[in-house]
Design a protein that fits this description.
The protein is an alpha+beta fold. It is built from one helix and two strands; from the N terminus they run αββ.
């Protein structure tokens, strides 16, 4: 009984995985980032990406 439940879980999980959308991306630029900062928020406005780091300044 437990084996059947395990098999059904694997099969059900596979169906969800196969049906999940896949996003593609391309890195067009890379910018330096302060290793002491953490991303607190992101805003994309008028073609510009702004990052809030949670640090003063």
């Amino acid at each position: 009984m437990l084996s059947a439940a395990a098999i059904m879980t694997v099969i059900a999980g596979q169906r969800v995985k196969d049906g999940a959308p896949v996003a593609r991306f391309e890195v067009v630029r890379s910018y330096p980032h302060d290793p002491q900062a953490f991303t607190q928020g992101l805003v994309f406005l008028d073609g510009v990406l702004y990052e809030g780091t949670g640090l003063n300044g």
